[in-house]
Amino acid sequence: MAELAALAENAVREHPAEALGYSPIDGLPALRDQIAARFATPELQLSRENVLITTGGMQALELLGKLFLEAGSTIAAQSPAYLGALDAWRPSHPRYHAMDLAAADCDPHRAMDGARFAYTVPNFSNPTGKLVGTAMRKTLIAAAEATGCWLVEDDPYGMLHYDGTPLPSMIGLYAKAHPGPYRGPVIYLGTVSKELAPGLRLGWVIAAPEVITAMTTAKQGGDLCTSGLCQRIVLDALSSGLTERIRPATLALYRARRDALCRAMSDHLGDLFDWEVPVGGMFVWATAKDPALDTDRLLRTGLDHGVCISPSSVFDPEGRNHNAIRLNFTLNPPEKLAEGIRRLAEATRSLLLENAA
Amino acid sequence: MAELAALAENAVREHPAEALGYSPIDGLPALRDQIAARFATPELQLSRENVLITTGGMQALELLGKLFLEAGSTIAAQSPAYLGALDAWRPSHPRYHAMDLAAADCDPHRAMDGARFAYTVPNFSNPTGKLVGTAMRKTLIAAAEATGCWLVEDDPYGMLHYDGTPLPSMIGLYAKAHPGPYRGPVIYLGTVSKELAPGLRLGWVIAAPEVITAMTTAKQGGDLCTSGLCQRIVLDALSSGLTERIRPATLALYRARRDALCRAMSDHLGDLFDWEVPVGGMFVWATAKDPALDTDRLLRTGLDHGVCISPSSVFDPEGRNHNAIRLNFTLNPPEKLAEGIRRLAEATRSLLLENAA
């Protein structure tokens, strides 16, 4: 926090024109270069032209909608899907081809055929917290190439990796097969919200230059530019290594909270829900063992018991999934997480009793 | 600049949760209260519920589009109109009822009949720099009440008042006739971009609570929230009186630049263009004396002569006005403004010679 405070002061004092004036629509050139350098590999060759700075990751989702969707367009979306993305695209009333990327019979090629883009969160998705395996990542890329469908790789949680080895990104896998200046179908979205601070509202898109140019035009009509002050702070946080230095502490904090939540779940929810312990991210997805348990009702009963959960219906474009819940473990300390789970167990039992009555 | 740097440092150090975390979608409560207090009068009673914080004034324009426009909706718009507003609303391909508020035969009632909202910049409009008189402001309010049309009062330039006395705002005029908690048809838009710093991307909407609630929902799908860091800096700049303290210097600087531009125009453009010296704002609007002068062509000829102007066509939804130009006087020092006008006179004469050939 002290370092960020100093970076904020320094940004205004040493770079007043950049921090306080209008920025280029597509972002400060030095920050675009920094993001390009951060993600480039010998195969994935990136330059400034591959990078757009956005006002948080959320704006990137909105710009995708502006760029690709007309009324009634189709989106192929990993299911369940991030609530915020569904919100961003709601104005054009899209149709969805759902892709359950964990299902054995999932056919991305069929889902992407006729879709404007495919939306995926391969690392620790919101809401499920699950990883999409490398084989499925390759299948998605192949489907994008075969169908001509853009493939969105939204990656806000990739750095929150607690166990094991990170899997290769789809944009990286594509570049391995097509090395050179990047022109591919994968549109990669990143943000500092999870690794630095959401209050800076700073994200980025890495994509083919034609996509960056078109999204820049869409951004002009949205907010003209992203705050120069926030851009300058992020540039200095990245180039000074602040983001790397704080990462071990962030990971240790969140790992301990995940463990505390999952331990409390084992103690209190084992007979009520099924779940997997996530190897990263911010969420545990738990499915009720009793198919008659309606998690929309559990939300209300939970609030009566002093605990708040996200019901699965809000992550379904059609609002039909009523049997699971999303639990966040990064916001609260272990003892509060444990108390929340105790209350959730009570609320669930109380609702099941009502059902039985 | 030193004060702003200190405010930025202080925001992170003293208010880390507000500055670095997610803010409420509608803005920090203390900032909403501050804006309400700043604009309230005994008749215009404002509370937090009347205020939405936006990511710059531009986002407010985009949210109006999201809220009120469907494909082919009609907007009653002051003509010529702010380019950025036309950009913000382009995705829904609106039809426009043009209102030339300086024309004797202007009929706002007819223009607003059937329109989703009316868009006006009563103080020193972009692009014309002109004031809408008090009588016409009252006519616009009466038309809004008679037609049920929302009346947008976009006011980024109101504080840049160099001569004479500011005119009453439309939201204030409405409240004089309807004192009490504000529930009226005027939607007032403000920003710190002109009085403090555009790099903070901080604006606000003051409107009836039902409008604020609906725009808040639209903002959620756009960028989730405005940067807490920027909000905290603006809150402290307003409450510490920084904005008031720097105002005299800003006005003196811009007044001198306006005078320098208009003096150079008198010296070099008197036989080529007609214009009025604006009493505020950032722009002079000049109409060519020769109706055959195409200012789209003048843009290109000007660039060849090393000067850039905004041609009138970009401020017309149909791109039909080709006979005027917008000149900005706030960005450059007097000697650069004078040199620009010399080059513009050369470019104009060269183009007129081409026309005659």
Automatic annotation (TrEMBL), chains A, B:
Any idea which UniProt keywords this protein has? Aminotransferase, Pyridoxal phosphate, Transferase
What terms describe the molecular function in GO for this protein?
A: transaminase activity
Q: Which domain of life is it from?
A: Bacteria
The answer, when asked if Transferase is one of the entry's keywords, is yes
Q: Does the keyword Magnesium apply?
A: no
Looking at the record, the residues that make up the Aminotransferase class I/classII large domain are 15-344
The cofactor named in the record is: pyridoxal 5'-phosphate
What is this protein's record name?
Answer: PLP-dependent aminotransferase family protein
